[in-house]
Amino acid sequence: MSVQATLVHEADCELEGWEEPAPGLVTWRTLFSGERTPTRGLVQGVAEVRATLATRPGLHRHAHAETYYILSGRGVIDLDGEMRPLAPGDAVFIPGDAWHAAWSEGDEPLRILYTFAADAFEDVVYEFADKG
Asked: C-alpha angle with apex 49: 131 to 73, nearest 5 degrees?
């Protein structure tokens, strides 16, 4: 597939999600990814995090750098053991191999525009820390 200018609509993208800690707590729609769109060099999507501190997603890392831009909701990110609040308009740079997890505070889901420095989402290999 050759690279070309591309327009996508979030609502037209497949809803995906993790099975743990419970289905539906973290969902996302991948907007741009080389295996799905005629693009290369970045992966971008919108995640919705309903997880709270009690149900937060497991700490994870991947070799690719990632950014978060908070679209709506309020939450917290654990970034290499440092807890930081998240609010609309905040941007976070997550270096490759940094342990991280974000979760919502309150009833409103945390909506995050995420971007990876990768050609395709399938190139991003997640490693999860033991929640034990």
From this structure: 130
DSSP class of residue 123? G
Is 8 contained in some domain? no
Q: Which domain holds residue 19?
A: 15-117
Answer yes or no: is 3 within a domain: no
Q: What is the pLDDT of residue 132?
A: 45
d(CA 102, CA 85): 9
Distance CA 57, CA 77 (A): 11
pLDDT in tens, 54-71: 888 889 999 999 999 999
Per-residue burial over 114-128, b = 16 or more CB atoms within 10 Å of its CB, e = otherwise = bbbebbbbeebeeee
For residue 124, is it within any domain?
no
